[in-house]
Amino acid sequence: MSEELKTETMADFEKELEASLKRIRKGDQLTGTVISVEEEKIRLDLKYFAEGLIYKEELSSDPNYDLLASVQPGDEITALVIQSDDGEGHVVLSRKEISDLEAWDNLKSLLEERTICNVKIEKAVKGGVVTYLNGIRGFIPASKLAADYVEDLQVYEGKTIEVTVITADEETRKLILSGKEPALMKRNEETKQKIAKCQVGAVMEGTVDSIKDYGAFINLNNGLSGLLHISQISSQRIKHPGAVLKEGQTVTVKILALNDNKISLSMKAVEADEEAVDVGFDYQEEGTAATGLSALLKELKF
Question: Three-state SS string across 275-299, please?
Fold first, then answer.
């Protein structure tokens, strides 16, 4: 018998037979292959006589979810049946519940590993801002939004910032994020790099930022801040830094030490260096310089 006239067996129709016998019910979990992606829905091949449909709102709870960018033909998607027949011969499914379960598992991992993620701020609310991470609504308290406290939360609406997960409670659906932690990490790293370029003994100008009982903090011209201890303000003993300094005043300081990303400064050392120069050299009107000792010896009579 030729191959063209070969009798077809039941094995040739096994997949079709299995599909015809399959009964799909609401709540079933099915895995299908994406056939097409449209702006508001995707179509799935469920290996069934009816195609599957998942509408955009059933794919993610994130209002910024981009369906066309997130799903491609050929992708495999697991979802739950919410309608076995929509009246037009389609099985309607929802991915949100399964997505949420997977999202919370991922959020717990992000929490444990202190992973830094990017999120877009959705809107400002009382006490903080709202955003979405892995499709889950998250809250960032105002005190955790940036390295410094933010007064006007609305300026952050629409901005994308780096965050870490600090609370991920699936039972209460409580997701708390922090922008402060990565912001401080970034600031400390930048400070570390700047300090690495500084040298002990360097003299530079700065501005008095704040005055404390124990000294003053100086904002240096290189963008760093250092401590000018009360004992390093003047060669004369003073009771309080405010006796010599005032906020906003420009001062010349010398770097005494660089320890643990902290800069120790001195005005007294600059003063001592200037005195050493004055004593060490005697400038004549002709422009010549003689040592202070030589000048003194000339005045002595033997």
Answer: HHHHHHEEECCCCCEEEHHHHHHHH
The CATH architecture of the domain made up of 13-94 is Beta Barrel (2.40)
> Cα–chain-centroid distance for residue 33?
36
Helix (H, G, I), strand (E, B) or coil at 24: coil
Both tokens assigned to 194: 């700047």
Residues of the chain with CATH 2.40.50.140: 13-94, 100-185, 198-274
State pLDDT tens for residues 145-195: 999 989 899 999 999 999 999 999 999 999 999 999 999 999 988 888 888
Interacting residues of 220 by C-beta distance below 8 A, sequence separation 6+ = 204, 205, 206, 226, 253, 263
Query: Cα angle at 186 between 182 and 188, to 5 degrees?
Result: 115
- For 197-214, the DSSP string reads T--TT-EEEEEEEEEETT
Tokens of 262: 């902290």
Distance between CA atoms of residues 104 and 169, nearest Å: 8
Superfamily per CATH, domain 100-185: Nucleic acid-binding proteins (2.40.50.140)
- Check residue 84 and report its DSSP letter: S
The half-sphere exposure of 37 on its side-chain side, counting CA atoms within 13 A, is 15
Domain formed by 198-274, architecture: Beta Barrel (2.40)
DSSP state letter for 142: G
pLDDT, residue 193, reads 87
Answer whether 0.85 is exceeded by the pTM.
no
Distance of CA 257 to the CA centre of its chain: 31
